[in-house]
Amino acid sequence: MLTFKARFLILVGLFAVTGCAKGEMAGGGSSGDSDSDSDSDSDSDTDTDTDIDTDTDTDTDTDSDSDTDSDSDSDSDTDTDTDTDTDTDTDTDTDTDTDTDTDTDTDDCQLSAIAGGWASGDDGWSYGDNWVRESGYMRFDDDPHDTGYTSDLTSPTANLSGCASVELTYAITLDDYYDDYYGYDEEMKPQCWNGSGWATLTTYTDGDDTWDESFAWTVATHALPVECRTAAAQIRFRAVGDDTWDIDYWGIDTVSLGP
Question: Does the model's pTM come out above 0.85?
Fold first, then answer.
């Protein structure tokens, strides 16, 4: 494509050539009888140098280096190690040591010989005044009225000489009067025969004050001393006091001996 400068120079050149041609046509000779020496030297040098350098350098360097290095290293290493160790150790140690020392109903340890439940009878027990069997237990009652009294509930005999140990278990209750204005003292004493006398294991009392000392059924246990573990052992419950009208009653139930 020509530039603006190139076009301009071409137009100037054309314009000069056209003007020169018109001059020659206007100065042409006439043929007549006239000698006319006309030396007309017309040197018209028109140098039109039209240099049109059209350098169109279009350097299009398209370097398309497409280096595609596709290194696909697919290393698939599958190591499957399956170690199955099954150790089953079953140790069953069963040590059963059963040491049962039960001195029951042998010739020299007759624990069951002394028991009292009084469900349907006296169970071999003997009893004194104011003791009555009532509704499955033994009861020391306030009637008939008595003062300065002592009355016992006594077991049958049993051979306990071979018993390593003996415990007496029983249930006891007291129904007291709250208006103890006399200041009397009423007691209940569980005892054991030691071969020459009666040993008191504990003493329950209604007190000598004006307070009601009643208590509900209570289970008690006492170890028999070795001197009470004789060949003719006995248990008794002794009611002793100043006036039976100071209480309503004492109750004794479920007497038993055990190792």
Answer: no
